[in-house]
Amino acid sequence: MMTNLFSTFDPSTSMVFSMNWISTYIGIIMIPMSFWLLPNRINVLMINIMSKLHEEFKLLLGVTNKGATLMMITLFTFIIFNNAMGLLPYVFTSSSHLVFTMTLALPLWLSIMLFGWINNTNHMFTHLVPTGTPTILMPFMVLIETISNLIRPGSLAVRLTANMIAGHLLMSLLGNTSISINNMLIPIIMSIQVLLMIFETAVAMIQAYVFSVLSTLYTSEV
């Protein structure tokens, strides 16, 4: 039972290859191109979302040029496509693996920290001791702030992975129990599955937004 339950998160397609990771790039292939005389609905939706994200990230970063927000908008788009692809039947969910999420979170956090400590050393030191901290508590505050900085990539990765796994496991459990359940209860199970699907769609969007917003906030500190 447990083996079948977690088999949906197995990237291996054989004893040698892990071809399921290819689904990570399906979203990039499906991004619509502007070949229409008039923009189609998907293009209009994507443009509206990106313009809204640009306005919000611009406020968080305190910049005016589009280049500074481009990386975070790209990160949001990449994550939301992978989360959405995982909702389709028989499609591997890349964002349910720590390998995928840590690959996004760790290099981003490391580059932010290196940039901050190399170019704004004094500014980074001031972040370790909040304003108004009593002198006797300063060593403890430095320790606490250092630990909180070190666990940031882990918290970003685990948050996205855990949220994607939780809903998929619940839907798998309901699907497995519906096989041996009374026929009278199948409509109830189906209704719950539809509600869970709507909930998981919302989670897929929210988690992509949370990941990109927190990355933007970490960037704005340096």
Automatic annotation (TrEMBL):
Membrane topology: Multi-pass membrane protein
Subcellular localization(s) per the UniProt record: Membrane; Mitochondrion inner membrane
SUPFAM superfamilies linked to this entry: F1F0 ATP synthase subunit A
Keyword Transport: yes
Principal cellular location given in the protein's record: membrane
InterPro entries attached to this UniProt entry: ATP_synth_F0_asu (IPR000568), ATP_synth_F0_asu_AS (IPR023011), ATP_synth_F0_asu_bact/mt (IPR045083), F0_ATP_A_sf (IPR035908)
Gene Ontology MF terms in the entry: proton-transporting ATP synthase activity, rotational mechanism
Full protein name: ATP synthase subunit a
Keyword Ion transport (UniProt): yes
Keyword annotations: ATP synthesis, CF(0), Hydrogen ion transport, Ion transport, Membrane, Mitochondrion, Transmembrane, Transmembrane helix, Transport
Family named by the database record: Belongs to the ATPase A chain family.
GO cellular component terms listed in the entry, alphabetical order: mitochondrial inner membrane; proton-transporting ATP synthase complex
Transmembrane segments: 20-38, 59-85, 97-118, 125-144, 156-174, 186-210
